[in-house]
Structure formats: C-alpha cells, structure tokens
C-alpha cells in the first residue's frame, strides 16, 4: 500500500509541459490521420483563450505509431521551409535542425512530445514529461509551431480543432 502511494505521489510530481503556463486551458484537440492511418493525437493548451502567439501555449502530441527522431526532425524542417516566406536560409535551417536534435527522441505508440511556445523567448520541449531542451530563438519557435497553427498547414482540419474552431 505504501509503495502504491509513493508511486502515485512520484507520478504526480513529474514535470509537465503545461506547468509553465498560468492556469492552462484546453484550446482544442484532434488527431492527425492520413489515408486512414492515424499518426498522433494532439492537444493545444493555452494561458489565454483563444490561443495565439501573444501568450504562452503548449502543444502536446501523443503518438499512435513509431517514428524515428530523424524522420520527425526532417519533416519539421521540410514543413518550416514550405511554410515560411521567404524560406529560411540553409544555414538557419541547419542550425534549427541541430537545435531540435535533443528535443525529439525516437517515439513509439503512447509516447508524448510537448512543445511550449514562450513569446519573445523561444520554445521548451519535453518528451514523456521530461524536459529535453530549450531553444532561445523566437523566430525558430514561431516557425516550428506554424507547422500546426499557420493557415497553410498540411492539416487544416487539425488546426481548426486545435484552435477550437468548428469549421
């Protein structure tokens, strides 16, 4: 019995990516499914609603499939390149790729990655509740979260759901 209580207290004491938000509120949630295969479930938590780049927010992604770190990072870089106009230089993208490397481990079903947007500062990243890295670059942070939140995202339905919009 004591062991169970200790385990519960320990589990509750684990850091959470939402801990940096003041009174986090769920903005929205949804799943990314392509051709009938769901890759992950996502939740957007914000210090203020509606969620915007004016206040801190946390994007939690819980994976349904195994994906290697390199694939996660390559996809993020490709999407940043596609969404940003003008596209960041190759040197900048390489620097951002290096910054993401400690943030993202290989994931398996059930793993959760979380990014926290910190206005004017950058982003903080967590893997399964553990802080992995902080990137002090507000331009990178905006470009990274635009993957999900920009109007040009490849997942417009998920974007609407995350932002709490029905259509």
From TrEMBL:
InterPro entries: Chalcone_isomerase. It holds the Pfam family Chalcone_3. Residues 55-164 form the Chalcone isomerase domain. This is Chalcone isomerase domain-containing protein. It comes from Ralstonia psammae. The lineage of its organism: Bacteria, Pseudomonadati, Pseudomonadota, Betaproteobacteria, Burkholderiales.
